[in-house]
TrEMBL record:
Segments forming a coiled coil: none
Keyword presence, Nucleotide-binding: no
Domain of life of the organism encoding this protein: Eukaryota
Compartment annotation: Secreted, Extracellular space, Extracellular matrix
Protein name: EGF containing fibulin extracellular matrix protein 2a
Alphabetized UniProt keyword annotations: Calcium, Disulfide bond, EGF-like domain, Extracellular matrix, Glycoprotein, Repeat, Secreted, Signal
Organism: Sander lucioperca
Family the UniProt entry places it in: Belongs to the fibulin family.
GO-annotated molecular function: calcium ion binding
SMART domains assigned to the protein according to its UniProt record, in alphabetical order: EGF (SM00181), EGF_CA (SM00179)
EGF-like domain boundaries: 95-135, 136-174, 215-254
Recorded GO CC terms: extracellular matrix
Signal peptide: 1-27
Underlying gene: efemp2a
Annotated GO biological process: epithelial cell differentiation
Amino acid sequence: MTLFLNSGLKIFVFEVTFVWLVPKVLSLCLPSDINECETIPDACKGEMKCFNHYGGYLCLPRSASVIPAPEPPITPTETNPCPLGYEPQGDTCVDINECEREEHDCQPSQECINTVGAFTCQCPDGYRKVGTECIDIDECRYRYCQHRCVNVPGSFSCQCEPGFQLAGNNRSCIDVNECDMGAPCSQRCYNTYGTFLCRCDQGYELGPDGFACNDIDECSYSSYLCQYQCVNEPGKFSCVCPEGYQLQGTRLCQDINECETGEHQCTDTQTCVNIHGRYQCVDSNRCQEPYVQVSENRCVCPVNKPVCRDLPFSIVHRYMSITSERSVPSDIFQIQATSVSPGAYNTFRIRSGDENGDFYIRQINNISAMLVLARAVSGPREYTLDLEMVSVNPLLSYQGNYQTSSALRLSIYVGPYTF
């Protein structure tokens, strides 16, 4: 080949001859070679020339020539006249299975794979070959797992976050219904995505651990839940009333009228008087000398008896009941004249029974007055007040200073409770 090199003003011409030695290869037991120079169109580009050789081809300058290399001396032996990796079998050469004969240099962790005329060393699944060694493949780099990936030698495993479990493909994670798997909720369990929630029935509250339900003591929250007494129960509360009362609705206490229900022990000669929380048996005839009974609750002092001159003409018996610690002043009983003489002037007063000044009279008009509780009182306690109406009639002055009076004997029972 002639090369022209331009170097300044001078031109140098060199004659170069390329020689390529192509060894002859025994054709014994080898497949026939393909001539790529003939089968591949334009195998070599430009000014290059295609030279076929066994198992391939070369692109060389057109001035190059190929000189076959001297054939290596083949010294057939009686044991193996065939190429490397083969052995004679009759008139032919057959492949040697180096793996079965353990004529290989694979590592103990590698698998020997026989090939035509040779063998290869293959790494187990999960490893890749670097040089002659097998290196573990970190599959977690490829994001095979939905949640967490754990690489192990030659493999990997997928793990799920708490509240999930592996799906059938061992890679995806699906929600676990902890409520169906014995979640530690003491009352109600609600499954949510990846977890669960414990809830309590009415009357309970969730404990600090988030699982146990503790009873709510409603009675400790307010003293107004019940009129008398609140009793805490598991998950609820109830109101109770004292003896002599019954529950009205869910929280109020109502007095039991034993006189109407017949739950009393009064005799035939007694009258049952209902009071707050209990009853009282009083004699049907409460008239005392010099008074005589003229009706069920009315006693009269006969005018023909001298002692009656300084006593009220009549006494009417009445009964009432009030609660303890009633707010004061409080109107509790109204006195009303049943008959009034024309021209009479009436005044009202507490004749007896109020030694401590717990009551007073407020006159409303000429024929009525109001008994007022002046001080808060606590029971159980009983008062017997004689409330007197004094009548003065100037029209009857021809008979002297005419004055008459009548009394109302009021028995007041103070109950032990404020309701």
